[in-house]
Amino acid sequence: EVQLVQSGAEVKKPGESLKISCKGSGYTFSSYWIGWVRQMPGKGLEWMGTIYPGDSDTRYSPSFQGQVTISADKSISTAYLQWSSLKASDTAMYYCARRKVSSEEFDYWGQGTLVTVSS
Amino acid sequence: DIQLTQSPSFLSASVGDRVTITCRASQGISSYLAWYQQKPGKAPELLIYAASTLQSGVPSRFSGSGSGTEFTLTISSLQPEDFATYYCQQVSSFPLTFGGGTKVEIK
Predict the structure, then answer these.
(1) Which residues, other chains included, contact A4 with Cβ-Cβ below 8 Å and sequence gap of 6+?
(2) What is the least distance, in Å, from the CA of B107 to any CA of chain A?
(3) Residue A57 CB coordination number (10 Å)
């Protein structure tokens, strides 16, 4: 069974750093792209970027380029999303999702990680 | 970036109703469109990809159609478990973009 399990909720202060994770199981992790999607409170879905764990090839949305870093460690089947300096506007639910093998849609999703940034 | 406009943004319907949601793209995207369902407090789930292909395990009451700039998601007979928010997503070009969502509520 394909599963993506994300790390738990985080409460941080503005200016702090953070790295959240997404661990895949039930499939060959290195062979499927993993994407990250943001959902701000009460709002819609925003694609942030996608990484191929096999070679760490990464594509970012221009809206998020330079604001976050997406990485992966294929040896432990885990993808990451990190911030070096959080802002209150980063408060959101963050989902990781597996891309289908031959197209860009996301066929499996993690349960989401809620990040709250507040002073 | 390709903009996706969903309509309506909200609809109220009854169990058994036929429901249609529209997604319009700001430029042609061939059939590179997906539909997702999201229930409160849950992650989105893929319903349809390539505009009209049903994802494995999705009930056949869901169907998708369209190409180019206009697409529709149809639920042939609304069931209680279908009350949720639906999003379209274009996968034609980067950055990938989503529509604003359509919330389907019980009348």
Answers:
(1) A22, A23, A24, A34, A96, A97, A98, A108, A109, A110, A111
(2) 21
(3) 11
Q: What is the pLDDT of residue B91?
A: 96
How far, in Å, CA of A65 to CA of A20, rounded? Answer: 17
Residues in B 64-83 with any Cβ partner in A closer than 8 A: none
Q: Do A104 and B91 touch (CB under 8 A)?
A: yes
Q: Which of A25, A97, A92 is nearest to B49 (CA)?
A: A97
- Per-residue pLDDT tens over the stretch B51-72: 999 999 999 999 999 999 999 9
Q: Please tell me the distance from the alpha carbon of residue B82 to that of residue B3, in angstroms, as a whole number.
A: 26
Q: Is A75 helix (H, G, I), strand (E, B) or coil?
A: helix
How many Å apart are CA B39 and CA B44, to the nearest integer? 7
> For residue A56, which phi and psi values (nearest 5 degrees)?
65, 20
Contacts of A99 (CB under 8 A, 6+ apart): A32, A33, A34, A35, A50, A105, A106, A107
Compute the count of residue pairs across chains A and B with CB atoms less than 8 Å apart.
56
